[in-house]
Automatic annotation (TrEMBL):
<dbReference type="GO" id="GO:0009003">
    <property type="term" value="F:signal peptidase activity"/>
</dbReference>
<dbReference type="GO" id="GO:0005886">
    <property type="term" value="C:plasma membrane"/>
</dbReference>
<protein>
    <recommendedName>
        <fullName>Signal peptidase I</fullName>
        <ecNumber>3.4.21.89</ecNumber>
    </recommendedName>
</protein>
<dbReference type="InterPro" id="IPR019756">
    <property type="entry name" value="Pept_S26A_signal_pept_1_Ser-AS"/>
</dbReference>
<keyword id="KW-0645">Protease</keyword>
<feature type="domain" description="Peptidase S26">
    <location>
        <begin position="10"/>
        <end position="165"/>
    </location>
</feature>
<keyword id="KW-1133">Transmembrane helix</keyword>
<dbReference type="GO" id="GO:0006465">
    <property type="term" value="P:signal peptide processing"/>
</dbReference>
<feature type="active site">
    <location>
        <position position="83"/>
    </location>
</feature>
<dbReference type="InterPro" id="IPR019533">
    <property type="entry name" value="Peptidase_S26"/>
</dbReference>
<keyword id="KW-0812">Transmembrane</keyword>
<feature type="active site">
    <location>
        <position position="40"/>
    </location>
</feature>
<keyword id="KW-0472">Membrane</keyword>
<feature type="transmembrane region" description="Helical">
    <location>
        <begin position="12"/>
        <end position="31"/>
    </location>
</feature>
<comment type="similarity">
    <text>Belongs to the peptidase S26 family.</text>
</comment>
<dbReference type="InterPro" id="IPR019758">
    <property type="entry name" value="Pept_S26A_signal_pept_1_CS"/>
</dbReference>
<dbReference type="GO" id="GO:0004252">
    <property type="term" value="F:serine-type endopeptidase activity"/>
</dbReference>
């Protein structure tokens, strides 16, 4: 039986629409590519790095200390921040003399490249939230600022898993 041109076009159109729907579902619920803007995560990440972001991870697990997370910016709707989870719900966070303590333990933070952590903070992270900071502590708008503050876990879009651009730095981020 010979197919008509319109039936062939309809078959291609259905295949194309199915592919678009699958791509949208993957991007919306599973994975996305996130571009880094600014230097708040330097030296770990650089301006215009592109990250593969796992969007489903925090529907089945909670963030861990040290995760690089993508979050809805509470002070800039429609903008996303890339930050590091420093303290989790129930943790006692203290920043004094440029040193970060979580639950009384001085944090080993090799990713900040010796940057001084400004702030004089002594707090307990509220339930359902995390305290985030950029690795470039002197140039990061993060939870130390009152207009950002604690981040509800529900506002975390995903976890940065690895860098896909630039190619010479391709690999896992931590």
């Amino acid at each position: 039986m010979k197919k008509t041109i319109s039936s062939v076009i309809w078959e291609y159109l259905k295949s194309f629409l199915l592919a678009v729907i699958i791509a949208l579902i993957i991007r919306t619920y599973l994975f996305q590519i996130t571009e880094v803007y600014g230097q708040s995560m330097y030296p770990t990440l650089h301006d215009h790095d592109r990250l593969f972001t796992n969007r489903i991870i925090y529907t089945i697990a909670k963030p861990d200390r040290g995760d690089i997370v993508i979050l809805d910016a509470p002070d800039r709707p429609g903008t996303f921040y890339v930050k590091r989870a420093i303290a989790l719900a129930g943790d006692r966070l203290k920043i004094t003399g440029g040193i970060v303590y979580v639950n009384g333990e001085k944090q080993d933070e090799p990713y900040i490249n010796g940057n001084f952590t400004e702030g004089d903070i002594d707090t307990v992270v509220p339930p359902g939230t995390v305290f985030v900071m950029g690795d470039n502590r002197g140039n990061s708008h993060d939870s130390r600022s009152p207009d950002v503050s604690y981040i509800p876990v529900d506002d975390i879009e995903g976890k940065a898993v690895f860098r896909i651009w630039p190619f010479d730095k391709f690999g896992k981020v931590n």
